[in-house]
TrEMBL record:
GO cellular component terms, semicolon-separated: endosome membrane; Golgi membrane
Signal peptide: 1-26
Domain of life of the source: Eukaryota
GO biological process, one term: protein localization to membrane
Name of the protein in question: Transmembrane 9 superfamily member
Compartment(s) of residence: Endosome membrane; Golgi apparatus membrane
Its membrane topology: Multi-pass membrane protein
Keywords: Endosome, Membrane, Signal, Transmembrane, Transmembrane helix
Transmembrane domains' residue ranges: 292-314, 358-385, 391-413, 434-454, 460-483, 515-541, 547-570, 582-602, 622-652
Family recorded in the similarity comment: Belongs to the nonaspanin (TM9SF) (TC 9.A.2) family.
Protein species of origin: Rhynchospora pubera
Pfam families per UniProt: EMP70
């Protein structure tokens, strides 16, 4: 053994050195692999859908009369997440040559007709933004507002000056491309930036020498040019540079019969920013103190509830059980007649709840959603969900949800067996579990999709994608849920520690409805996440990047603890007043947080999204928020129910009843 230990100590460092020295091809995970460009190499900008915080309806870039590339419009390959988010990435005629500063002509449009003018004016007044991408980096724009520099992604279609009824189109773009000169060396570790970590070896030296694109900025402006003179030029001919911004008289108005000339400038600037850190400008975390305040606030709530649970367990429950166990059988029988509180419902506490099948289905779906959320946020916090990989987060969530169907089926069927005492009907429970949440979501999304179709938005899912998602669900999630259900029938049945009486015990009348207490309990879990909820809503609806997944993971863990504690406390309070119908109340004690999330989201719509206009936009917002709130209800309700079930099982397993 000593020789083996000595040999392993020698071989491990040797193996590590050999791995470093041997030729290999490495990759960046996550994100995209670093790409270097040679001097004067041609690069083409890509364009994404036009977006607006006023309507939330994305439209194709080429739905407006913009210049088209010589070879025609070609769509980029998009993943499932990008398609669901309404992204439509196309090629564009904007061509750069590395380290060549130039000012170029693109095209001159035909005379604008009434339809073109109406569309351009509508997109301008709805504050639509043009989104461009270079080497997977979105274009950035900086504006000065009240002495503060504000960073935006994209640039406006046009603008309407104050006090003017005319609209002006942005037809000249001044690009600035930041490049970092990279020279391949021997083995070199690229730091763990937002796009991951990679190894560049000697074999890559020849191909990796060159320039990395580490920044992409734009200054948009409107320039009125002579269309007759400009139309004589060819695409990519040189034109004079422009100093932006220009006076209104020299800007290009949007009017009928106007011919618009599109031009652009590009300037390459060498930068010390390294490739792994190029996303830092996009992901600057603002309001870190607010995030910490949210976490500290949640910790205070947890400590408060933990104190209550501690008192329940150690002072009340254990004291009663200790006294009860110290008595002999005759004294126990005499004491039973004088009992009060939770000990009186010993023969009813495990009585089958109303709508028992529904609670099994909801708990199964809740486990599936909770597992998906935890795994996704953990991977995102570890850096595996890079913003460079558009749609990666949503795609990962969908794939995880599909494969976690096996756990949903197992939990729902095992709970069904526990309640019913038999496996009969497990197939129906499994099918219902597989269809409940996806069915509701599919119904809502179909209604919203018809609205998007009616508005010709790129956010509308094509019918082929509908069938693809349906096929994924039917071929992956449904079979796995049925397999999980079958495994649940073979698992060991959870035995109740006490027998259930044939005749249910009458529940004493109360001064106030018990559901009022349950509904109010949701305020405590909501208090742990409402600050983070504001940042998430701003990220989704105001076009901002959200990448503080470390904070989100901590908040999620705190939310799980708070939901568990709230449900246990509420369940114990109901048992103490001889209310043995705790099943649904335990679920909604923590699940009612979804009601407050939904109401807060509506409040955000009314007071923070004042720019959101039109009934279609409002319906889209409410529809998406409803789906998210339903998912939160199932996940948090499941946490509370399973914790309360364990608590009740433990509590009454300590009571000796003949």
């Amino acid at each position: 053994m000593a020789k083996l230990a000595t040999a392993s100590q020698f071989l491990c460092p040797l193996l590590f050195v050999l791995l470093l020295l041997c030729p290999c091809n490495a990759f960046y995970l996550p994100g995209t692999y670093m790409h270097t460009y040679a001097q004067q190499e041609e690069i083409y900008v890509k364009v994404n859908s036009l977006t607006s915080i006023e309507t939330e309806l994305p439209f194709s870039y080429y739905s407006l009369p913009y210049c088209q590339p010589k070879g025609g419009i070609k769509k980029s390959a998009e993943n499932l997440g990008e398609l669901l988010m309404g992204d439509q990435i196309d090629n564009s005629p904007y061509r750069f040559r590395v380290n060549v500063n130039e000012s170029l002509y693109l095209c001159t449009t035909n005379a604008l007709n009434e339809h073109d003018v109406t569309l351009l004016k509508q997109r301008t007044r709805d504050l639509y933004q043009v989104n461009m991408i270079l080497d997977n980096l979105p274009v950035l724009r900086y504006t000065n507002q009240n002495g503060a520099i504000i960073q935006w992604t994209g640039f406006p279609v046009g603008y309407t000056p104050d006090g003017s009824s005319d609209d002006y189109i942005v037809n000249h773009l001044k690009f600035k491309v930041l490049v970092h000169e990279y020279e391949g060396g021997n083995v070199k570790i690229i730091g763990t930036g937002e796009e991951g970590m990679g190894v560049i070896t000697e074999n890559d030296k020849n191909t990796m020498n060159g320039y990395e694109i580490v920044g992409f900025e734009v200054v948009p402006c409107s320039v009125k040019r002579d269309p007759d003179a400009m139309s004589k030029l060819n695409m990519y001919d040189s034109v004079d540079k422009v100093n932006c911004p220009l006076e209104i008289e020299r800007s290009q108005p949007i009017r009928e019969q106007e011919r618009i000339t599109f031009t652009y400038e590009v300037e390459f600037v060498k930068s010390d920013i390294k490739w792994p850190s190029r996303w830092d400008h996009y992901l600057k975390m603002e309001g870190a103190k607010v995030h910490w305040f949210s976490i500290m606030n949640s910790l205070m709530v947890i400590l408060f509830l933990a104190g209550i649970v501690f008192v329940i367990f150690l002072r009340t429950v254990r004291r009663d059980l200790t006294r009860y166990e110290e008595l002999d059988r005759e004294s126990q029988a005499q004491m039973t007649e004088e009992l009060s509180g939770w000990k009186l419902v010993v023969g009813d506490v495990f009585r089958e709840p109303t709508y028992s099948k529904l609670i099994c289905v909801m708990v199964g779906d809740g486990v599936q959603i909770l597992g998906m959320a935890i795994i996704t946020i953990v991977f995102a916090a570890l850096g595996f969900m890079s913003p460079a990989s558009r749609g990666m987060l949503l795609t990962g969530m969908i794939i995880l949800y599909l494969f976690l169907g096996i756990i949903a089926g197992y939990v729902s069927v095992r709970l069904w067996r526990t309640i019913k005492g038999t496996s009969e009907g497990w197939r129906s429970v499994s099918w219902s579990t597989a269809c409940f949440f996806p069915g509701v979501s599919f119904l809502v999304l179909t209604i919203l999709n018809f609205m998007l179709w009616a508005n010709n938005s790129t956010g509308a899912l094509p019918i082929s994608l509908f069938f693809a998602i349906f096929a994924l669900w039917f071929c992956i999630s449904v079979p796995l849920t049925l397999i999980g259900g079958f495994m649940g029938t073979r698992a060991e049945q959870i035995e109740y520690p006490v027998r259930t009486n044939q005749i249910p015990r009458e529940i004493p009348a109360r001064k106030y409805p018990s559901w009022l207490l349950v509904a109010g309990a949701g305020t405590l879990p909501f208090g742990t996440l409402f600050i983070e909820l504001f940042f998430i809503l701003s990220s989704i609806w105001l076009g901002r990047f959200y990448y503080v997944f470390g904070f989100l993971l901590v908040v999620l863990l705190l939310l799980v603890v708070v939901c568990a504690e709230v449900s246990v406390v509420l369940t114990y309070m109901h048992l103490c007043v001889e209310d043995w119908r705790w099943w649904w109340k335990a679920f909604f004690a923590s699940g009612s947080v979804a009601v407050y999330v939904f109401l807060y989201s509506i409040n955000y719509l009314v007071f923070d999204l004042k720019s959101l206009s039109g009934p279609v936009s409002a319906m889209l917002y409410v529809g998406y928020v409803f789906i998210v709130s339903l998912a939160i209800m199932l996940a948090t309700g499941t946490i509370g129910f399973l914790t309360s079930f364990s608590f009740v099982h433990y509590l009454f397993s300590s009571v000796k009843i003949d």
